[in-house]
Structures are given as C-alpha cells and as structure tokens.
Design a protein that fits this description.
The complex is a heterodimer. By secondary structure, chain A is mostly helical. Chain A contains twelve helices and no strands. Helices cover 71% and strands 0% of the residues of chain B. The radius of gyration of chain B is 24 Å and the shape is globular. Chain B starts with 11 loop residues before the first helix and ends with a helix. Classes of the chains: A mainly alpha, B mainly alpha.
Chain lengths: 276, 295
C-alpha cells in the first residue's frame, strides 16, 4: 500500500515537471497556428479553433527569415567543420604528449569559462576589424570555432584516451608515419566523438546571440537569433503569431540535434578521464 | 616511445599538432582577454585615444548607483536561479533515475528548454507574459485570482520574479541531466544494502545519494553560478533591463556602457569586477565544500 502511494505520487510529481518544461513550447506551437483574431479573442485554447498556416507564410515571405536562417546555417557548418579539423590533432597531442603546453591549454580551457564575454568583446572587435573580418560570416565562424574549442577539446581528449596505445604502436612497427597513425588509426576510432563535437559546434553557432549582435551589422548578414530579437523589438499586435511561428522554426534544428547528441554529450563531460 | 610518462618541458612534434589550435586561441581569445582586462584600467571611450588611469574606474564605481543596483540585481538573480535550478534539477534527476513508465518521454521533454536558443526562450516567455494575449493573464483572470491583467515584465514588483521563472525553466534541465549522469555511476548494490538495513526513501537520499553526488553537485553549482551571473541574451529579449533598471544584470549594464554610451574602459572595469566577485564567491563555496581535502 505504501509503495503504491509512493509510486503514484512519484508519477504525479514527474508529470508536473513535464508540464512545466513542455508547456511553453506547446503554447507557442498553438499560437503559431492561430489567427491574430483568435490570439486576442481572450479564449486560451491550447488547440486552435481555426488552425491557419498564415503565420508561417508571413514569416517566410514577409519577414524573409530565410536569409538569416541560411546565414546561421552557413556559420554553423563552417564552424563545426573548422573546430573538428583543428581539434583532432590537438586532442591527440594533448593525450599522447605530456608537456607544459598541456598545462597551458588546460589552464586556458578553465579560465575561458570564468571570464565574461564583455571583457574580450571590444578588443576582439578591433582585431577582427584590422583583419577585415567584422561583418563577415567567416569572421563570425572563426570566433565560434574558438568559442566552442574548450568544450570540444575536453570531450575529444576523453575519446582519444579510450583508444589503446597498443594499436598505434602496432601501426608504427609496421612502418606507418605519425600522420598515417593519426588519420588511418585514430580518426576512424574517433568518429563518434567527431560527430558529437561537430553537432555541438553547429548548435552553439545556431543558438549564439551576443557575438553575432556585436560583430554583424549588415541586414543581410545577421544570424537568426539576432533577426528574431530585432523582430521582437518591433512591438505591435499583429506580430504575436508570426513571432510564435519563427520561434518554432528556430527551435526545431536545435531540438533534433540535441536529442541526437545528448547521450554522448553528458557521458563525454562526466567520464573524460574514466574508461580504461 | 609514444607516451612520455613524465612532463618534459617542450616537444616540437606536439607543437606542430597544436599550432592550428594555438594560433586562433592566442589571437582571438588570450590576447583580447588580456587586452580587455587592461582596458578596465583605462579611460578608453570609443573613438578617442586610450589612456591608463589606474583605479579611477573603480573609484567611480563606488559612487555609481547604477553599478551597485546592477550588482545587487545580479547577485539576487544568480543566487535564486542557481538555488532553484539545483533543487528542482536534483528532484527531477532522482525521479528520472528510478524506473518509471514516463522516463523515456521525459528525457525528450527535458531537452526542450536546454536545446532552445536562449533568445527563443526569451521570446516564448515574452509571448506568454504578454498583457493582452498572454496565457497567464487569461488563466488568472479566468480563475478569478486577478481582476486586471498584469504587465508582468514591465512592473516593478513582477519583473524580477517573472524573469527568474524563465531562468529556472531554461537552466534546470541542464542541472538535471548532469546530476542524472552522476547518479547513474552509482552501483545498485549500495541501494540494496541500504534497503536491507531498512532505510526509507529519505534516508536513502540523505545518506547514500547526496554524499555520492557531492563532487558532481559542486561542479554543477559552480558552473551554473558563473553562467547565471553572466546571463545576457535571455534578459535582453525579455525586459532589456527594465523597468527602470530593475532587471539590469551586470552584463546588460556593461553592454550598455560599452555599446550605447561608448565607455569601453568603464565597461571593461565592470567586467573585471564581475570576474573578481564570481571568483571570490566560488572560492568560499568550494573551500567550504572541500574543507577536508584542503587541510
């Protein structure tokens, strides 16, 4: 009897949690299919009485969200490829060599988490301007590469550690060069880590707001979060529906990618050093 | 031949592999950071020359009510959001760790706030808090709890509680997932032994789960504290720091100083104070947590 009570109350508790967590998305999803008349009708239905796709139409054709979406997509792709390419040899070298450089990099990984972005923002802006990389999708991508690097390096070196050193020694004895060892032996074994890192970098770029807000000025180069933030700035009743639709569109890629990487992500963070 | 057990000072082969990482990190992270810290000791304004002015910025801060106000709001926000997200996240993690019918579905649902771009979190809640079309006003009026719609994000009393709810909603899943990962490293035997000894659910939690989670919790609390203190985008979208600076967190204050008023030196000085404040808070917290080990 007591167990039954505990079981039931646990379930109720969990349902309350889930309602709290899911409700905003459900509500906004519902808003996105309502006409503005229904939105302001004063009847809070979760299921729209007269569903319409007008808001989505207006987001794509009147607001031209496609431009900022494709900018976000380009930046996400460049930065995820970039960060993976440079972190494969780097994470390998961090595991296989033990020098003062390791301490330097580790120190940087920790320090980079503590300092607020505002401190580096202005100097970063000036450096990028000198390089001609402000208001440029490449410039923004490079910033994101550096920005995601601490986490990617941390995660990747966990994967490298799990690779038995005997495999490499065998390859070296067979006459393989160091380059061949990295690309032919290590890389294939790192694929899960590479995939997780790439997706993580993509989603970080897709979600990021502050750098994009400061570094990008031209209307046709801004990324999706900045575009949507500007969109909210413009008050007015007619905007609620399109804004809801735009929020849903921006959330979908993040949700899909997150559900894929979630497992690797947390185990990568927590283990890091485990797995012999 | 490959692995060197002891630290050598330097290895040219390692440097070759690290160069592609070192160059961007030094140019775009280490250098700007050092430069930024230095700017906090100058009177730099956008467009004018940079001049070292020692501790002038910090002396000015002492008399700057906007600065004090934003730090007050910053600490209030950070303590409450971190506290609630850890408590609620811990509860959620424990629930998810026990076998229940809903666990599979739950693991998808808790991703929703976490995965979402922070800007979108803000937009969604802004739509729900809306005076005319927001769901909260509808429901509360419907239930007869309030007569007039409340302008949640624009009211002096409600703005802070309103953004805190959004902050907890957005950050709690992250805490829950990390705590859950910590819980899953516990061996089942521990629980069985405790049951055999007649421990009830609370005792099990208090004497077995909590001690085991101590290091994970310390890490999650520290990171959340830093992240929450540095919140920007979410509150930027929700209130822009208003009404009347009630929700102006330190990062919003620094952003305004730098990019609205052009006081880059002063903004950097605020950044420096944030780093020191956060470090001091974490130092005391971690020292308290790991006292035994430090002795």
């Amino acid at each position: 009897m007591k167990n039954l009570f505990f079981g039931a109350s646990k379930n109720i508790l969990l349902i309350l949690y889930l309602l709290f967590l899911a409700f905003p998305l459900l509500w906004v999803l519902s808003l996105s299919f309502k006409s503005s008349m229904e939105i302001y009708s004063g009847i809070p239905n979760l299921i729209p009485l007269a569903p319409t796709t007008q808001n989505y139409y207006s987001v794509f054709f009147d607001q031209n969200i496609l431009k900022s979406m494709s900018n976000s997509f380009i930046v996400g792709i460049i930065s995820s490829i970039g960060v993976v390419l440079i972190s494969i040899p780097a994470s390998y070298s961090l595991v296989r060599y033990k020098t003062y450089l390791n301490k330097g990099i580790l120190g940087w990984i920790l320090v980079s988490q503590i300092f607020p972005v505002i401190l580096i923002m202005v100097p970063l802006y000036m450096i990028l301007r000198n390089l001609g990389l402000t208001d440029s999708l490449y410039g923004l991508s490079i910033v994101y590469i550096v920005w995601t690097l601490p986490f990617v390096l941390w995660m990747m070196q966990g994967y490298v550690k799990a690779i038995p050193i005997e495999l490499e020694e065998a390859a070296l004895i067979d006459g393989a060069s160091r380059r061949q060892v990295i690309f032919k032996v290590i890389m294939p074994l790192l694929l899960p880590g590479i995939a997780a890192s790439a997706l993580f970098a993509f989603i970080t770029a897709w979600n990021e707001f502050f750098f994009a807000l400061v570094l990008m000025k031209s209307q046709d180069l801004i990324t999706l979060p900045v575009d949507l933030a500007r969109f909210t700035g413009m008050e007015g009743q007619a905007r609620t529906g399109p804004l809801a639709a735009a929020s849903i569109i921006a959330t979908i890629p993040s949700l899909i990618i997150f559900s894929i990487i979630q497992k690797w992500f947390t185990s990568g963070l927590v283990s890091g050093a485990v797995k012999e | 031949m490959i692995q060197k057990k002891s630290y050598s000072s330097f290895d040219i082969n390692q440097l070759k592999l690290l160069i592609p990482v070192l160059i961007p990190v030094i140019v775009l992270s280490v250098f700007p950071l050092i430069r930024g810290i230095y700017l906090g000791f100058t009177d730099y304004r956008l467009g004018s020359p940079i001049q070292f002015n020692g501790f002038d910025n910090y002396v000015n801060m002492l008399n700057d009510i906007y600065f004090w106000k934003s730090f007050q709001v910053g600490f209030l926000w950070t303590f409450i959001v971190t506290f609630l997200q850890i408590i609620l996240g811990l509860g959620l993690a424990v629930l998810l760790n026990s076998k229940m019918r809903l666990t599979k579905l739950s693991r998808v649902i808790i991703l929703i706030p976490w995965a979402m771009p922070p800007i979108i979190r803000g937009i969604m809640w802004k739509l729900m808090y809306d005076v005319d079309s927001g769901v909260f006003n509808y429901l509360l009026i419907d239930m007869g709890i309030i007569n007039q719609p409340i302008n949640w994000l624009n009211s002096f009393e409600w703005a802070i509680p309103s953004i805190i709810v959004v902050g907890v909603w957005g950050e709690m899943p992250k805490a829950a997932i990390f705590i859950l990962a910590g819980l899953q490293t516990m061996s089942k035997n521990l629980f069985e032994a405790a049951r055999l000894d007649g421990a009830n659910a609370w005792q099990e939690f208090r004497y077995i789960i909590l001690p085991h989670l101590k290091p994970v919790l310390a890490a999650v609390i520290s990171l959340s504290f830093i992240w929450n203190f540095n919140t920007f985008g979410l509150v930027w979208v929700l209130t822009q720091g208003g009404p009347g600076g009630t929700t102006r967190l330190p990062m919003l204050a620094a952003y305004e100083e730098a990019f609205r008023y052009g006081n880059v030196g002063y903004a950097a000085a605020i950044g420096n104070v944030v780093v020191i404040a956060v470090s001091v808070a974490l130092y005391f917290y971690l020292r308290h947590q790991f006292k035994q080990r430090l002795v």
